[in-house]
Design brief:
The model is unreliable at 261-266 and 304-326 (pLDDT under 50). The chain is α/β, with parallel strands linked by helices. The chain folds into 3 domains: 4-57; 85-299, Heat Shock Protein 90; 317-445, Response regulator (Rossmann fold). It has 12 helices and 12 strands.
Length: 449
């Protein structure tokens, strides 16, 4: 049986499909039709391929736009939370500031023995670390959401950071908070900022639900952690009244909210589930009476890692390094905060020839006339920025050692700063001035001794 297309063309020529053309003219007409059909098929195939190519490109662009929109919505949801946190943040900063001011006033008015003085110093250090942590978490909440590479982190990190931010408010509202099986400390692969947002949202939602109740008792949030070979499961449970049957099916829908107008965006849970799904995990909810449990399941990234944590007066002491050569190196310290410049000058003047500048413009003048072994500069300053100072210093002396300080850089360096590598970077406030000083001195001298 000949091809149906060929048979159709034969019928167009009034030829029997069971017979082969006999006359030369019939053969010529037949072959002409076959040729036209072939070329038409080529044109149709080209148009089809072109259409598929355009559709594929448009689909890719649409997916990228949807991804960008999702990140923007996530940031909008996070920013909407800041307003509700403002009073708690003010409380978290004002109380430690009052305590620090009180200790300093006592130390200024009285002659204290060394033991009492060191005790007060320890209290002041712990209070400043506490304030630094509060500011760090607030900055983390306000920073732009980025599509970052998933890294291996402890599941406890985002939970504890979210509780660090909201824990005091939960306590003020008489909401008990408990984490079971903390010692398990399993690891997952994800974006710490996104996972922090997930648990921050869950805690904030629970707090709002508790605060909307009248005559509530025994308010509590309990987090249970399970760890298996393949997955980490977090059960986030509260007894804030449950979720009505007519609502539970919609809680993960974007823009759906039961809160009053102006009190919520309706994006929190939708974005939280999306963040979990981006880790190849799942997020579901179960309701039993007044108890609501969100179940977060994420693939396990087995292993252990340790992160050094500092912040107590225990780290204060004499700076020692047997290989240092006193007064052999020079350093320019640049910061628009005079107190910080004076503090760093006091730390480095035993080891370096020190010159300090309280602006980027002043630093540029010094760099034009003098040669320094190292430049330690803040990034954000009026006039010339720290980036401009560092770039100019490297231009004047390619071997200069750069040390950057800032309280505003996120998880990655801007490209302009990255181009100045190698350099040391310290986030303000320093976890330990002693450790920071030792690190800088070692960085400046280790290739020169």
């Amino acid at each position: 049986m000949i091809n149906r297309i060929v048979a159709r063309q034969l019928r167009r020529l009034n030829l029997d499909s069971e017979q082969v053309p006999k006359e030369l003219e019939q053969w010529q007409d037949f072959l002409k039709v076959i040729g036209e059909t072939y070329h038409q098929n080529l044109e149709d195939r080209y148009l089809l391929e072109r259409s598929l190519e355009i559709s594929s490109r448009e689909m890719s662009e649409r997916l990228q736009k949807n991804k960008e929109l999702s990140l923007q919505l996530m940031q909008a949801s996070k920013l909407a939370s800041i307003g509700t946190l403002a009073s708690g943040i003010a409380h978290e900063l004002n109380n430690p500031l009052q305590a620090i001011g009180g200790f300093l006033e006592i130390m200024a008015r009285r002659e204290l023995d060394r033991e009492t003085t060191m005790k007060y110093f320890d209290r002041i250090t712990r209070l400043t670390v506490r304030m630094a942590g509060t500011i760090k978490h607030l900055l983390k909440l306000s920073r732009g959401s980025q599509d970052q590479e998933k890294v291996r982190i402890s599941i406890m990190d985002p939970i504890e950071e979210a509780h660090e931010l909201l824990g005091k408010q939960l306590s003020y509202d008489q909401i008990e908070f408990e984490i079971n099986n903390k010692s398990i400390n399993p690891y997952v692969r994800g974006d710490l900022n996104q996972l922090f947002g997930v648990f921050q949202n869950l805690m904030a939602n629970s707090r709002d639900a508790f605060c909307s109740q009248v005559n509530r008792k025994n308010s509590r949030i309990i987090i249970d952690i399970e760890n298996s070979e393949n997955s980490v499961v977090v059960h986030f449970q509260d007894n804030a009244g449950g979720i009505p049957d007519n609502v539970i099916g919609r809680i993960f829908d974007p823009f759906f909210t039961t809160k009053e107008v102006g009190s919520g965006t309706g994006l929190g849970l939708a974005l939280a589930r999306q963040a979990i799904e981006e880790t190849n995990g799942t997020m579901t909810v179960q309701v039993k009476g007044i108890e609501t449990t969100f179940i977060i399941k994420i693939p396990n990234a087995a292993g252990n890692s340790e992160e050094a944590r500092s912040g107590s007066i225990d780290s204060v002491g004499e700076i020692t390094h047997p290989g240092w050569k006193i007064k052999q190196f020079s350093i320019l310290i640049v910061d628009d905060e005079e107190d910080i410049c004076d503090q760093l000058e006091s730390e480095f003047q035993q080891e370096f020839f020190v010159k300090k500048a309280n602006s980027g413009d002043e630093a540029i003048k010094y760099l034009t006339t003098d040669k320094f072994d190292a430049v330690l500069t803040d990034l954000r300053m009026p006039g010339k920025s720290g980036l401009e100072v560092a770039s100019f210093a490297r231009k004047m002396n390619p071997d200069v050692k750069l040390v950057i300080m800032s309280g505003h850089i996120g998880s990655s360096f801007p490209p302009e700063l990255e181009a100045l590598q190698p350099f040391e970077y310290f986030e303000k406030p320093f976890k330990s001035l002693k450790i920071m000083t030792e690190t800088v001195i070692d960085f400046v001298t280790k290739f020169s001794i």
